[in-house]
Amino acid sequence: MSERKVLNKYYPPDFNPLKIPQNAENKDYLQGICIYRFYIKYTRCLQEISFKTDPRNTDYEIEEGATRNFMALKLAQEQEKREDSEKEEKATNPMKLLENRTQVYKQEIELMESLEKLRDLNRRQGNVDYDSMLLKYNLAKLKKKIKGMQEEDENTIKSLMGIKRKIDENEDDG
């Protein structure tokens, strides 16, 4: 009877690890990960759909009976190819280079114009004298105050002098 938890195993002196048979079928195993095949029968038409796992791409491969609606990996690869071809075309085509330069110059001109507008606006706002605005506001307040005081004086003079208003007879009827 052998021990259950062996820490070091015995290897004979004539042991050759190359003579140990490896996994014979590459289809069934890929880097130690099993490839599973699934068979599913569609309930409406009883057609068989088969697909298998793809450990290399961490996805599924459809073998028969179905089509994919959306493949994210394929879409990403196609987009990378398009971007690479566009970069290559931009680098080799002199007309594209010229068009890109003109677009860059247009953008620079637009930026310069917008900066100039902002500078003009800042200059206009910088010329505003807030003290004079406050004085104008205070003058208007003072004028109102003086007018109010004059009206009060007139009212007191009228009351002291005994000037009475003639009361209309129509107001009493109302």
Automatic annotation (TrEMBL):
Record's GO cellular component terms: U2-type catalytic step 1 spliceosome
Gene Ontology terms describing biological process: mRNA splicing, via spliceosome
Stretches with biased composition (Basic and acidic residues): 77-91
Pfam family, one: Saf4_Yju2
Signal peptide per UniProt: none
Stretches for region Disordered: 77-97
Protein name: Uncharacterized protein
